[in-house]
Amino acid sequence: MVEAFAVASGKGGTGKTTTTLALGMALARRYDVTVVDADTGMANLLFHAGLADAPVTLQDLLAPDARGPDGAAVDVADACYDRHGMRVVPCGTSLAGFERSDPARLREVVAELAADTDVLLLDSPATLASKSAVLPIVLADRVVVVTQPTIPALSDALKVQEYAASYGTGIAGVLFNKVRGDLGSVGTQAERYFEGPTLGSVPDSDAARAARDAGEPLLAHAPDSDAAEAYRAAAAGIDPEANAAGDVADRFRSAVVPDRP
Ligand SMILES: Nc1ncnc2c1ncn2[C@@H]1O[C@H](COP(=O)(O)OP(=O)(O)OP(=O)(O)O)[C@@H](O)[C@H]1O
Ligand SMILES: [Mg+2]
Domain 3-253 class? Predict the structure, then answer.
């Protein structure tokens, strides 16, 4: 069984990468979890996961000839790292590597990963402005929408929801992040515009910033923090579907990469 989730927000800096790793760790208590840095243009999950020195990454797999830094052929397993109870697939940060990479190859990579995991979490780029930015939403079964309870962030999040719907991708729920105090009237009213449930509300947290600085996922760095607790509660609201791995892999492989975002 496998279900693929894109963690997306439209807006930058809302906490997608933090959320991907936090939900991944929480879900890993019940499922076999794989997280992928599908933000291939501005990859930085590796810095959140202590993988800054990873020798082989997704970027190598997306190169037309799939060659690693030493010129040797690489396969998907070479870019998988067991960290914090999950399988983590980081993406390199070189501009030349990104320019060389073919985003459409992500389909084949996730198809292979889907064969051997229960939950695939795709950390997605901000914006909807390029093929590489929209592909995780096109591929995923459902989107976890991460937003702050502000009008600009919500506007972008709703655009993501609309875009997902146009590709038949569902909404797993909306997660409010960096919340100061209670959700406030903007956040509370926003709930009615999202199709999925509200998964939770993660407080603005020094622990989250400190975790990033330490290069560790929040749930490893500060498991007792309020933010970590909120992420665990949010993960409990996600019930992954048991889609047949072969069907999901076939769908990934045959997904049409949109010509225009
Ligand atoms: N709940 C939180 N409280 C405080 N800071 C947070 C919280 N969640 C994330 N952050 C911080 O906000 C910054 C951006 O977080 P993150 O990288 O996860 O966002 P992102 O949406 O993936 O960004 P990008 O759009 O650049 O990919 C990081 O410094 C992170 O530590
Ligand atoms: Mg990010």
Answer: alpha beta
